[in-house]
Amino acid sequence: MPFVEVGITLLVLTGSCFFVLGAYYQHNDFLYKLHRLIQEDPYAFYIREKLYDTLQLFNPNCLDQSDVSNSRMSQIMKYGFPGLDDIRVYSDFILSYDRRNRVAHWVYEHLRAPCVKNTGNGVTSHKANYQPDMSVPSNFRSVLTDYKNSGFDRGHLAAAGNHKCHQTHCNETFYLTNIAPQVGRGFNQDAWNNLEIYVRELTENYGSVYVCTGPMYKPKRQLQDVTEVRNTRTKNDKWCVEYEVIGENTVAVPTHFFKVITVESKLSGGSPYMEAYIMPNEPISRNANIRNFLADIREIEHIAGLQFFNGLRRSFFFGTNYTTTPEIYKNFA
Ligand SMILES: *[C@@H]1O[C@H](CO)[C@@H](O)[C@H](O)[C@H]1NC(C)=O
Ligand SMILES: *[C@@H]1O[C@H](CO)[C@@H](O)[C@H](O)[C@H]1NC(C)=O
Prior knowledge:
Layout: H1 3-14, H2 20-40, H3 42-46, H4 48-54, H5 65-70, H6 72-76, E1 87-89, E2 93-98, E3 103-111, H7 144-147, E4 153-156, H8 167-172, E5 179-182, H9 184-205, E6 209-216, E7 219-222, H10 226-232, E8 238-241, E9 245-246, E10 251-252, E11 256-263, E12 273-280, E13 294-295, H11 297-304, H12 315-318, H13 327-331
The protein binds 2-acetamido-2-deoxy-beta-D-glucopyranose (NAG) (2 copies).
């Protein structure tokens, strides 16, 4: 058994900070990248205190509850950064912004049961307004008029309904950095919404839920002209990435959206469970089961250019027996 696996197994057995060892191997690489980011990116420099805060993640002394509240950032990013492009820190979610497409690369959230249901504290999305994020340089910023009359919904990546503990948290999900053009009927208002509800339901039956959401621009096979095929003597298909852009700022309309979900067990020492979904940004039948959209995390990594749980072995999330039906399926069959 390789050293890492032995180490992780031991840590799981002790039920303590089981992720620490894997994270340790990431540590140096991450520190180096973060250091470079802070030097090169004025915004990263500006928020460097918050970014350093995320490094508590790698503190080998386990975080106790009081530390967690002090360091919300490190809690949200517990399983590592999928990428380091233009990191933006909000009070209840972390985002990586894609300046070229004017849509985030990914948004990471940490969901807890008390903050995903109505608690009578008056927090509501009706009190929030969509607004451009003025901290993004204007030439890379998306604005309200980009979406106006585009035919697309302003779809949340971090869902407003996941952040009901404070009005500020809810408000921040309405920044356009957290918004992407989504097909309204059949997608944003239906299948995608069902997936968001499913994620919230997980918090009731399990422990903490970590969810990373983002857009995908998936290559599609293009049919070739028969004569062209004959001339080039090849039967290989052409694959192209094609997507619409909207508004003066040419905001990209993703072809698909993904969610990578990590669910922690309520039992101490239970290993976390991970699953992923990819949904096409198009009307999806009302009766479609979200299970139809279960996806391989490696496909998301390949197409979105991201890496999940860098430093942790995948078997860690599933145990070593991939064929066993995870407990989680039994409740959401
Ligand atoms: C939330 O946004 C609304 C509308 O922009 C604003 O009036 C309100 O003060 C904000 N609340 C908080 C707590 O930031
Ligand atoms: C793996 O799962 C299969 C199917 O449930 C079961 O028969 C087998 O005993 C399991 N193996 C281990 C090592 O747990």
